[in-house]
Amino acid sequence: MATLDAHAPMGTLGGSNLPPGLLHAEMGLARSPFMMFRPRPIAYLVSIALACSCGFDPDVGADSMELSAESLGLLQEQDAPPEVEAQLRSALNQQFGSILSPRFPDAFAASGPGMGSELEVAARLYRGQCMHCHGVEGGGDGRSAYFLTPPPTDFRPGTFKWTELERNHPPRVEDIEQSLKRGVPFTSMPSFSRLTDPQLTGLAQVVRWLAARGQVERWLVAEWVQAGGEELPASGVEATVLAVAEGWNESAQHLVLPVQEPAPEDMGLERIERGRLLYFGELARCVACHGEQLEGDGPAVFQTIIDSDGASRQERVPDEWGIPSRPRDLRQAGFRGGSSPLDLYRRIRVGISGSIMPGASESLDEEAIWDLVYFVLSEAGLHQTGENR
Question: Which of 51, 186, 318, 323 stands 20 to 30 A from 8 (CA)?
Fold first, then answer.
């Protein structure tokens, strides 16, 4: 894996999700630490109690979808008049509808289930099953979110960690369905495997809809600032929608597949030992983040912050959502993005979108990646060899 720079700036927008030249810290969107989410002594019990609200369809107004706090903060910094916010909300509603009556713009590929009138039915299911954590706009700021660590995912940047695709590409419906079926271990995200396949597909389409809407919002706000606060023409809105839609429509073209998976007889102790040497070696440098004891506390995870009075302190490098990075403790069985050899192969080869986990495809060949996969699986107790197999 590539060497990590713990001091590299990491914006909440994600380089691939904004037009070139729009990632600037002075725009007010480059960092958005999730300051509201703090561990609570009774967080676990309270989150369970709040989770009982699943299935409740709250009263949501047709025009209840607000701009994100990041967008509103940026508009405020630019002394934008109230009409600008109203114009942006109107443009988004015209293109995407509302949480009560959602629709995809024509530029988005409309094939497959969960589109058209079915999307409205799926949005009702989202409001009952997902909104209390992920929020009306998909910002990860629902009523239960305050009690959850890590916080629920903010869909609006369009960045998803657990996909089968190359890094920083929007997920396919199948990728989101897989997360819904499996849940995310060691988080508050449960499995929804009890739902029917059409229901899962519908929820996945709603998540895509929220993410695409969020991306368009962020692009429009950034373009408004870059244009010097001028009124956004309708042609500019259409061009932004087309640009965002292109990424979603082409996501299936970026599927990550190995050249060939190792045969069972090639998964023995020799391969695991090669993986161990790579883990601790200079070529892969896994130890930089995951640590000498595989606990996820390597030196590259931390950065030095100098306060105004000259005092220094160590903080974890934030991810794209502004949340302190916590690399995986590789000794624990179960991985958030799936625990199969192919799941880990993808994580190691292309990295994890939105996180400090880099891809290793430029420094390691196929065989070396598989060596690391089986070393990690063996350390987590998920791969046995010889007589114990």
Answer: 186
Q: Return the closest-CA partner of residue 176 out of 142, 200, 150.
A: 200
Burial (0-12, 13-18, 19+ Cβ within 10 Å), 265:
exposed
Q: Which pLDDT score is estimated for 37? A: 39
* 108 contacts 249 by C-beta, under 8 angstroms: yes
What are the structural domains, with CATH classification, of the chain?
Answer: 34-254 (no CATH), 264-388 (1.10.760.10)
Do the Cβ atoms of 29 and 222 come closer than 8 Å?
yes
The first and second tokens of residue 92, run together, are 């988004």
What is the spatial distance between Cα 333 and Cα 185, in angstroms, rounded to a whole number? 10
Q: Residue 187: count other Cβ atoms within 10 Å of its Cβ.
A: 14
d(CA 359, CA 250): 21
d(CA 369, CA 358): 13
DSSP 3-state assignment of 14?
coil
- Mean pLDDT to the nearest integer, 111-136: 86
**Tens of pLDDT, residues 204-261:** 999 999 999 999 999 999 988 888 877 777 788 999 999 999 999 999 999 999 998 8
